[in-house]
Amino acid sequence: xxxxKATGTTSGTSPAWRNWAGNVTARPARExxxxxxxxxxxxxxxxxxxxxKVKAVGTGHSFTSVAATDGVLIRPQxxxxxxxxxxxxGTVTVEAGTPLKRLNLALAREGLSLTxxxxxxxxxxxxxxxxxxxxxxxxxxxxAAQIRGLELVLAxxxxxxxxxxxxxxxxxxxxxxxxALGVVTAITFAVEPVFLLTAREEPMxxxxxxxxxxxxxxxxxxxxFYWFPHTGNCNTKRNNRSAxxxxxxxxxxxxxxxxxxxxxxxxAVNTLGRALPAxxxxxxxxxxxxxxxxxxxxxxxxxxxxxxxxxxxxxxxALPRAELVAALRELRTMVERSDLRVSFPVxxxxxxxxxxxxxxxxxxxxxxxAVHMYRGTPYQAYFxxxxxxxTAHGGRPHWGKVHxxxxxYFSQVYPRFGEFTALRDRLDPDRLFGNDYLRxxxxx
Length: 444
Hints:
The protein is an alpha+beta fold. 32% of the residues lie in helices and 24% in strands. It has 14 helices and 21 strands. Helix 10 runs antiparallel to helix 11. The N terminus is likely disordered.
């Protein structure tokens, strides 16, 4: 997968930009699609000369306006491909606009893999890491925690490289930088020889999975589960390394479960629920029993990731892992005592502590609770009630998902919040990379 050589393009009057969920719209003054780091640097300098803000956008999978701008919108789709693989060091350097899907395929062809990843792979590598995209893991952390080096264009157009040894203060923050420190142009990830995972998917009751959560977490390298509101049912998934042999999902049964049930039928069920909310509890009981137990073994990205074609709104909070079960039980009680009708399952995952300044798992063992609503369905009442529970437990919202928190709140739940804002003051004092979202969450 080689880097693109085409000449970058600039458009004048730009059409409106919308994110994947359709809840964020922006109309930039112009769009730029640079084909090289030099062209990107020139675009940043020109924007500064013209008094315009700069934001880079990937595939728009964030539910917040983290990438929205009325200034210059940088589209990195020509900045794609692998720059180099260092097998001795166990690293791969990749251009920032490369979709995770293309990276995973390219690494597999080279007999390599990331250690952990989220459950979708449509995002660009820079978009995913900059907002803290994560999967689930007892010992292995988010995608950003696997970064070993970064290259970014700063507000003056200069190019800065950082790692644990080179500009370590920038490296500590820029791995999850929210686009506030500069435009990421390349990322060096730690990789390892490709390995096999055995996935065990199994229905389990809510009471059992919460009672045995610590045991399930401890015994599995990657454990997650989905609880279906209005029911006492969950689907669990345990991923552990395997010596093989490979036993992929059967093509027919895989299509039935992953495409027909999880996408096609699920889309129809949610459309019905949006039109007739009273049907949701009864349909939820059926949906929660639709998927059967199964076990399969394959290479990592084929186990970690799943197609997600039904569009939705999402809020996710990171809590101290020790408080995860209590918060989840409070969420269930809240739903049961309310008039809410929730057709989407609640997702629960974990992550070990890491050392990234604004990582949701920074300096603490973490459990994640994600709540969803079908796109086009009123979600504010549900999310507001859920957020009240999560913040009472010291929760940290995912930077790319719906929340109402501000800089004052973040300064309380992130011990190193001041380090990030001080670095931003040094690298971007004029807020060239600012927007309304960053003003709210980082202050001005």
